[in-house]
Prior knowledge:
By secondary structure, the chain is an all-alpha fold.
Amino acid sequence: MADRIDEGVVKVHDKxxxxxxxxxxxxxxxxxxxxxxxxxxxxxxxxxxxxxGGTGRGLLAALPALxxxxxxxxAIEAQVRWRRSSPARSPRL
Length: 93
């Protein structure tokens, strides 16, 4: 059967990857494209930015890039003190 059109064609597909088409305006595309690194898909960019919530490990990884001035640190400490004095507390079980 040498006349078969698909002879010699290797069929490859990802069983786990469902595909949806979305429409976004040019401004949204530009914003998304700014976050895309070489070799990265738009799906990966979206999952990276909107995927699972933050974790302790993610916070630890972000700490080296975090720079807070004294004013910000003072404001955080004041907020923590205020919350400690607040009567709205979770019950101790």
